[in-house]
Write a structure and sequence with these properties.
The protein is of the alpha+beta class. The chain contains two helices and eleven strands. Bound molecules: calcium ion (CA). The site of calcium ion has 11 residues, from strand 11.
């Protein structure tokens, strides 16, 4: 063991972490000026590609809905060609809401290769009141459900919490590998290399 080898290991660990950090797969960042693949279930809602405010880049999606305690579920969805999320552990969403936002948004995804009910695989909820007027990035674990051929992501909320016009903004939606797993893999690889020397 020598100092050079320690330095080398450090470089490889840093490199592995950088590679892990760069391996996110963006589902949408709304920077193309279109809302390709997006749809909504309700005539009370409007989806608009806006240039401000964004979390990053040239665009974000503004979602407004104008409801009065109607007590049913409303959805927005994005469909896309099949994506393999198997090696990703977390869904990240940049979200900004206005001060009147309340309730929660339930996030589901649909894997075309897996059995699912009408709601797909539910992976969690966003508390709309938490972002406090600024963009916040929410990280939602993807859990253990099948996700080798994901074709749709769905956001749904109960409009009983909506009284009047509510606005929220969605920006970068991406899946990222588990950083801890990536680091452990890198460390495991280093230990193997050292044993072989
Ligand atoms: Ca953006």
């Amino acid at each position: 063991m020598n100092i050079n080898r320690h330095v080398g290991c450090g470089v490889w660990v840093m490199l592995a972490l950088v590679v892990t950090a760069q391996a996110a797969m963006v589902i949408d960042n709304f920077n193309t000026g279109t809302l390709s693949g997006w749809d909504k279930s309700s005539g009370y809602m409007t989806l608009t590609n806006v240039s401000s405010p964004t979390y990053e880049g040239a665009g974000a999606m503004q979602v407004t809905w104008d409801d009065w305690n109607q007590g049913w579920w409303e959805n927005i969805t994005k469909t896309f060609p099949s994506q393999d999320w198997s090696n990703y552990g977390t869904l990240q969403i940049a979200l900004k809401t206005d001060a009147s936002a309340a309730g929660t948004v339930i996030i589901n995804y649909f894997d075309s290769g897996a059995w699912h009910n009408g709601w797909g695989s539910s992976i969690g909820t966003l508390d709309l009141s938490l972002s406090g007027g600024n963009y916040a990035v929410y990280s939602i674990p993807l859990g253990t459900a099948a996700r080798s051929s994901v074709t749709e992501i769905l956001f749904s909320w109960d409009n009983q919490y909506v009284n009047g016009t509510t606005t929220m903004y969605l920006d970068t939606i991406q899946v990222v590998p588990e950083p801890v797993s990536g680091a452990l893999l890198a460390l495991g690889g280093l230990l193997l290399l050292r044993r072989r020397r």
